[in-house]
Each structure stands twice: as structure tokens, then as C-alpha cells.
Amino acid sequence: MTLADKLNAGETVLTAWSTLAAPAVVELLARADFEAVTLDMQHGAHSVDSVHDGILAIAAAGKPAIVRIPVGRNDMVSRALDFSADAIIAPMINSVEDARAFAAHAKYLPVGQRSWGPARALSMRGIQKGQDYLSSANDKTVAFAMIETRAALASLDEILAVPGIDGVFVGPSDFSISWTNGAAVDPHHEEMTEAIADIGRRARAAGKHAGVFVFDAPRTQSYVKMGFNLLSVIHDGAYLSLGMSTMLDQARNG
Fold first, then answer.
1. How far, in Å, are 5, 51, 63, 78, 184 from residue 83 at the CA level?
2. Is a pLDDT exceeding 90 seen at residue 21?
3. Can you name the residues that pair with 66 across neighbouring β-strands?
4. Using one digit for the tens of pLDDT, what is the confidence trace for 194-224?
5. How confident is the model at residue 1 (pLDDT cuts 50, 70, 90)?
6. Mutual orientation of helices 172-179 and 193-205 as an angle, nearest 10°?
7. pTM attached to this predicted model
8. Minimal CA–CA distance to 101: which of 110, 89, 113?
9. Has 46 been annotated as catalytic?
10. Where is the HpcH/HpaI aldolase/citrate lyase domain (predicted)?
């Protein structure tokens, strides 16, 4: 079952968030009990090469791979999909024009204008005929537009209506900076909680998926209740830090 199938079936997908490009770390994340792994090219250390190799490691563990591209790097959309990524998260989609440009690179005609060249994806998915991939790719890959600013919130309905945009993904930190006009960075800012909940509700009402970056694991289920069905739970640096702290506490205190 693909990531698109799981989301369309109403499943809640928890994804690991990979910022460290070390292959061994990506492999550990892929073998953990997450439903997916996201490779972060925006704020993480991932490069084209590490994304290419990381997708292979994730697929070997039987998990879907998601790639967050850098801001404005629509050229990486089709490239990551050609590498066999299951989904793309595009940051700072602040207008319907941004959404259309992103979707154009994520989907083949007649929805978008994605260029043909998925040799890696065909090989990894065991697809013999290019026509079979062409016929299914638009439905089997997922394009998430990040909602991170007041401008994006104001254009939310128009962004959701863009053909080829399969869902939206909230970045609470950037959203808080925009919400406070640069006064604070606080992913749990109380004044924007209802706005984030509204994004989840409106996305699901439009028949689209809703994702969010969760900075505090115990808050995950509260986002699920808001309608979010793709949730990234913190990131690999935090996993290492938490694991070390727990181990050292046990070693010192029994």
C-alpha cells in the first residue's frame, strides 16, 4: 500500500523527520516504527545524493519516502519523484501562483507539466512499462504545499483548489513568526492554535490531506483530532538527544 493509499484510506501516518544525512541514521529511522520517513533538504543537511540514497534505504525497509525540498526549488520536485519519492513537501507556498508552480512540477499532463524521466522510480517499484507509471503517478504520489504565513492562510481555499495539490502541511514555527509579525517563534503559540485547527478542518473538507510538524510528541493526538493525517514527530537530532539523556539517567540513577 502506497502512502497515497494509506492517506486516502483515512489512516494516520506518523513520519520520522531526517535532518542528518548520514546513511546509517536514515537506515535506523527507516527501521523504526514510523509509517514513513521524511528527508529534509530545506533546513536539514540532505543533498541530492543523500536523498537519492536515502530513498533507497527507506524503500528497503518497506516504508514510503517523503522529501521536503528547499524553498523555491521546484526543479527538485520531479527529480525527487524520479528517485522514487512517494511525496513532496514544498515550503513557503504563500499564494495560488506558488501552488500552481509547485503542482506543475509534481504532476504529469493533463494536471501539470512534470518532465518524463523516472527510470529510478520504475526500477525501484518493479514497473516494466513506462505507460503503467505514467497512468498511475499523478494519483500515487502526493504533493503537500506548506502553509506557514498569514498570506498562505488568506489564500488557503484557493491553494487547496489548485489541481495537483493533494494536501497542505503546516510549519508551526514559521507560522508563529508570521502570526506575531516577527515578535516570537513559538510553535505552540496559543493565539494561533485555532487557526491551525481551521487549516486542518478546511483541508479535509476540501477532500485534501492535512499535515503538520509536531514539536512536542504528546501533542500529536490533539492534531489528529483537528483533522491532520500526516504528522512528523520532532526530528532525528531530538531522537538522539532524548535517547542519550534517558540512557545516561538510567546509567547514573539505576
1. 19, 8, 14, 9, 38
2. yes
3. 38, 87
4. 999 999 999 999 999 999 999 999 999 999 9
5. confident
6. 120
7. 0.96
8. 113
9. no
10. 16-237
Pairing of strands 142-147, 167-170: parallel
State how far the Cα of 68 lies from the Cα of 58, in Å rounded to an integer.
15
Q: Which tens digits make up the pLDDT trace of 128-145?
A: 999 999 999 999 999 999
Give the contacts of 110 (CB within 8 A, at least 6 positions apart): none
| 197 burial via Cβ count (<10 Å: 0-12, 13-18, 19+) | middle
* Closest of 106, 18, 107, 89 to residue 55, by C-alpha: 18
Q: What is d(CA 59, CA 244) in angstroms, rounded to the nearest whole number?
A: 28
Task: Dig out the grid coordinates for 201 from the structure.
Answer: 478542518
Grid coordinates in use for 111? 494536471
- Burial of residue 131 (CB within 10 Å: 0-12, 13-18, 19+) is exposed
Domains belonging to the chain, first-starting first, are 3-253 (3.20.20.60)
Among residues 43, 46, 188, 235, which one is catalytic?
Answer: 43
Dist. CA 48–CA 36, nearest whole Å: 19
- Distance separating alpha carbons of residues 193 and 189, to the nearest angstrom: 7
Residues 126, 127, 131, CA angle at the centre, nearest 5°? 175
State which amino acid sits at residue 21: A
Shortest CA distance to 209 belongs to which of 10, 2, 34? 10
